[in-house]
Design brief:
Elements (H helix, E strand, L loop, with lengths): L3 H6 L14 H4 L2 H14 L3 E6 L13 E7 L8 H11 L1 H5 L4 E7 L1 H6 L19 H6 L1
Length: 141
């Protein structure tokens, strides 16, 4: 645990956020790439994770429909949780109006991240998971 005086003065230092995918592979993940770019440009995060969780759902392989983002930014200082989520949703309105079906958001201030840098586990799929015996028929149609 850091001393209180340090936490009160802690500032987020934006980092170059990279993906495990680079070059040509990023072109194969256009939605993930777009999400990462918009959040990086607008929020200057000191920590950013963009996780494609589509594989956990009843969608064709390679889909980009379900995402979890973990974003830590000074921009969130003084904002309520709902204001943070609205900000992220607004930045990603094009993706949410199109290919993205579900978006889980963990938006933290640098101080909150410093105090607890954990990422909560995503909930199970509530609407026809890949473990549903009927879903094989639905996604192969």
């Amino acid at each position: 645990m850091l001393p209180t005086r340090f936490l009160q003065s802690f500032r987020c230092v934006p980092v170059l956020v990279t993906s495990k995918y680079s070059g040509l592979q990023n072109m194969e993940k256009p939605v993930e790439t777009s999400i990462r770019a918009k959040l990086t440009q607008n929020l200057e995060p000191c920590h950013l994770e963009v996780n494609n969780e589509s594989y956990m759902h009843a969608v064709p392989p390679g889909s980009e429909t379900h995402f979890k983002v973990v974003v830590v930014s000074d921009v969130f200082n003084g904002k309520s949780l709902i204001q943070r989520h609205r900000l992220v949703n607004d930045l990603l309105k094009e993706e949410l109006a199109g290919p993205v079906h579900a978006l889980s958001i963990q938006a933290k201030t640098p101080q909150q991240w410093e105090e607890n840098p954990t990422v909560s586990k995503s909930p199970g799929c509530m609407g026809g998971s890949k473990h549903d015996p009927q879903m094989g028929k639905k996604i192969s149609s």
